[in-house]
Structures are given as C-alpha cells and as structure tokens.
Specification:
The structure is a homotrimer. By secondary structure, chain A is an alpha/beta fold. In chain A, the strands form two sheets. The first copy, chain A, has a four-stranded parallel beta sheet with strand order 1-2-4-7, with helices on both faces.
Chain lengths: 233, 233, 233
C-alpha cells in the first residue's frame, strides 16, 4: 500500500494535468495505519524498511509539487492520523475521529508525532500521544489538525465530497507553477531563522515575478479579465 | 512608503519619549500590500530591491526596541497581512478582513508566508496562501493572527481606538528598558534549541536584575507604591 | 524549594513504581514564582545560581522519563506559569488564573517566555509577557497553555482531583518503557528539520518494535486480552 501510494504520488508529480490531490479512503475508514500482524512478524530489518517507506511517503506529501488535501471520513489513526497531519490541508466529516493509539500497544506513535507535533500545539500533541484517545473532528479542528469540519447537517445539503471538491477546484484554478514554488518555499523557510527565511523567500518572490505567469496574473487583474495560465505555463 | 516607514521606525527607535508603537492606517484600508503596477513594470533588479526593502521593514518591526501593535480596520492583504503578522500584538475591528491573495495573480505570497507561518498553525497558513481567500477578523482571532477582535457592539461603546490605546498605555507604563530587553530576548530564544534558549534567557534575567529598574520595580511592589521608571532609566 | 523539587524529580526518575507525575500545590496558590525579596537582596552571582536552578528544574520536567501533568488551582504566575508550560499536560479548575507579570516589576519574564513561547502562538505569549495581565483558565485552554479546564459545575460532581487522577491512571496503565522512549523522542525531534526528525523517529520506532513490550502489546491486542507490562519491563 505504501509503495503503491509512493509510486502514485511520483506519477502525479510529473502529470501536468493534475493540479491538486485529494487523499481520501475507498471505504468507511480513512486509514488505521500499519498492519499490526506485519509489524509483529517482521524482523528488525523488515520493520526498518517499512518505517523508511512510511516516512518517505509522508515527506513526499510535504514535498509534492502540488497541494494535497486530506478528506477524512471514519477514523484516521496512527500512521493514518500522520497522513492527515502531513497534508497541506485537511477537511473531515463530523463523524470522523483521530488518534495516535500506538501507546496502547506498547508502541509509541513516534513517527506520527513528527507530523502531529508540527501541526498542533505541543500539549495537544502530547495528550493524543500519551493517552491514545480518539478525538472528534470538532476537537481536531479546534487544535489545528484539520482546517474544518464539513457538517452536512449544519451546511445545508453540502456533502464533504462537494465541499472538498470546491476547495480543490478553487486551488486548481491558480497558476500551477506559482503554487508549486510557493508550497515548496513555505515548508523550507519555516525551518530557517527569520533572516534566512526572508532571504530565500525574497529571492523566490523576485524569481516568481520574472515568470510569465505572474505577468499574466497581474495584467489580467489590472485589466479585469480572467488569467489564462494554461497558455503560459 | 516602505522607505518612509523604515525611516520612521528608525526615528522611533532612538526617541526615548516613545514607549509603544501603534501601527494603523490613515484611511479605510489597513494595507493591501504592494502596488501591482510597480511590480509589473519593474525590472528584476528593481523588484529585488523592493523585496529587500519590504523584508527589512518587517524585520525592523520584529527587532524594534519597542512593542508594536497593529490596529486593523478594513482589509489587510498580502504584505499588509504580513505587517499584521509581524507586529508583536494585533487587534482588529469586527469588519476587518485578512488575506494573502498573491496566488490569484500567479504571484504566491512567499514573503508574507514567512511572518504568517510563524504566527499561526501551518494548515491555517496554507489555507490562506493556497486559496487566497479573505478571512474574517473573528477567524483571524481564532487562528492566532490577531490577539482579539474589538467589537464595539459587543463591548458597549468602546471603539477600537479606545481599546488599543488602553492596551498601549498599559504597556507604555512598564519599564521601557525591561520591555526592550524582554522583547529582543523573546524572539531570539524562540529560534534556539531549548537548552540554548534557557542559557540566553537566564543570562538576560540576571542582567535584568542588576539594573536599577528591576530594583525599583521590586522595591515599589514590596513597599506597595507605584514604580517610578522615568527617574531610573 | 527548587532544589527540593529537583531532588524529588531525580528520585522519581529512578523509581520504577512511579509511572506518571502530577504536579500540584499544597495550598490555594499553584505557584507564584520566585521570592522577590530573595531576588532583590541576592548579588548577581546568587541570582545567576538561582536562575540556573530554576531553568534546570524546568528542563528536568521536559526530560523526565515519565509524563508530568500540571494540576492547577489558584494562580500560576511567573516561574509558576513556566512550570505549567513546561509540563507535558496541564489541567486547571475554572477559577485558576495565569500570568507572566514580571514586566510590572521591571523584570521581564524572559525565562518563563522560553516555555510559554513553545507552548502557545507568539502573539498570545507576547500579550501575556508585555501586559503582565492575568488570563482565565478558559483563556489558557483556548491558547493551548493548558489542555482543558475541569469545571465541576459543568462536569457534574467531578472534581479536578478526580479528573486528573483518571487521566494519570490511564497513562500509568501504558507500557512505561514505550512512554519513556516516546516522550524523549517527541521533544528531541521537534527541534530538528523534518528529514532529521523522521530519521531519529523511524529509528526509535524500529527499536521500540524489537522490545518485548511492543510484542506483548500487539499480541495482547490481536488476541483481545489486557497487556501485562509489569512482567515484561
């Protein structure tokens, strides 16, 4: 599954017809993480290789040249919760639930904690990691693990599918090159001190402005027309 | 405008009669960022110089020896939103709105993302950066971009002006030297690992305690009188 | 007091019968920080030594091999607020209040800011540090300084004691070794860039899986029985 996901993301990376990725489950559970039987029967070498695959997929999501939106229904636990934390954006139905329950099995969710700890305040991360308790979609929204709960009863007849597609379509209509550069720069600068962050961000802005898509976008805005990215990318 | 703001901040820096800065607009818009015509017609060198000026102003706010409070009415977008994120504190009226809409023009708000990404959780920053959507003052408060919405209908007849002035006056009544040292240390230690952060913060505390203003402040507190900073700074 | 707390934590570290620590006050005030008279009469060397002791206790909490829960009633100010921020988890009664009021005495809460600034968004930290104002337990929950307010009037007859003990008991029932490794890894990886964080976290996971407690935990889960950590640690 991890290898297929990785291979699929690599294909997406080079497909210029894809502008945004929605990561969702084909079933009632978003993802409950690793197969425990596999972890138990693997030797250390096999588990090391499995952890490498898993951490690679998570980092591929962060470094992918297109935004990734997690669309969560059902439960997202352990590496499944890590998937949500690793996406650029995340939306969930009001029945979705989240946990990092490894601690219940004597196997602390250390790698999920890498993504979770960069996504929410540390006391919220530690509460999930130490208790292993499920939190509701509403709580996940409150702590910053997801952007919003899409509650079909509150939001009229809108389904999670509709709403996430609407957000994805909005982002897909932007210049793909500007989005690619912007996403990459965002995560890179976050790991730097303020002055170094401004240095690389300023360079990125200047480079962005020399590109035809910024000229097209600004000209379209100033002349009140819709920008045409496709002819310019 | 950036050069004037920079020069003004430098003047403020050395004016011992100013203890706190309130940054607000002289008009219905807080700031909508750069002039798009200028960006479009500039060559790369001119844009690089413009980005340098802009990043310098933002870092001057962070490093200024006096606290800076953003008082936001109307819209704060792109570098205007970055200004808000770069101030130490921010308050807004309930009609204020915030966005990093560069992506709509093919020009990702990379430099605003430096300030925004250090101010709010990353999924909230990414949502603003990728969609370019306006968020309300209430939403900005919820994610940590501003400290509070001052809603004159909720808070009786209090206006944003009154409330921000009250907060500024409260801070202006503290020892300017202690505030200067404390602000500088806060941002510096945040960029260090925990042990190094404690090392420089402990040194700062000890140095702070040798100063006459800490002796005055503690003595005033213990003898139940109002401290007199002005005679001691 | 700091020396006793430090010595006590060191004893706890090697006591295998203790799995979780609850830090609470023996009186109506959680902690109001340093003795101002002591700070005022100490020479610089004595104050440097005092700051070292204090920063050591705070870092001992972070590095302790068992989770630490702050249980807060009454006020937690200055180094007392820092204690709360330094614990892994924190719960408070609805009458608890929090502040970093050093600035009122000309003595900026620089060391408390180290813990506070890693616990909440920076505008919230700066508001507390610059104004010195008390915030309510509800506000502390909202900004992430504490995990939750335990309101006996809202939560039936449950007291703060009962609720914190319930959370502590839940965590104490996990494998102590997994918790120890997980806690240490969490804070360590947070200070690293993403790739380095994943590298050490993946190694920790693999090592965790070779331990008898993970085998016991996973086997217990798969065979639907209660894990028996005590025989395996």
């Amino acid at each position: 599954m991890l290898q297929q996901l990785q291979a699929h993301l690599k294909t997406i990376e080079t497909n210029s017809e894809i502008n945004v990725v929605i990561l969702k489950a084909n079933g009632p559970v978003f993802s409950s993480g690793h197969d425990l039987n596999e972890l138990l029967t693997n030797d250390s070498e096999a588990n090391a290789s499995l952890m490498d695959s898993c951490s690679s997929v998570m980092q591929t999501l962060v470094h992918l040249n297109k935004p990734v939106i997690a669309q969560v229904e059902g439960i997202a636990t352990a590496a499944g919760c890590q998937l949500v934390a690793s996406c650029d954006l995340a939306y969930a139905s009001n029945t979705a639930r989240f946990a990092t329950p490894g601690v219940n099995l004597g196997l602390f969710c250390s790698t999920p904690g890498v993504a979770l700890g960069r996504c929410v305040h540390r006391k919220h991360a530690m509460s999930m990691l130490l208790t292993g308790d499920m939190i509701s979609a509403r709580e996940a929204e409150k702590i910053g693990l997801i952007n919003a709960v899409i509650d079909s009863e509150v939001n009229g007849n809108a389904t999670l599918d509709d709403e996430v597609l609407k957000i994805a379509s909005k982002i897909a209509a932007k210049s793909p090159k500007a989005v690619e550069m912007g996403k990459a720069l965002f995560y890179k600068q976050l790991e730097k001190p303020l002055d170094a962050a401004y240095e690389i961000a300023s360079k990125a802005m200047v480079e962005n402005m020399t590109k035809i898509e910024a000229k097209e976008g600004i000209d379209a805005f100033l002349t009140k027309r819709t920008p045409n990215w496709s002819n310019n990318d």
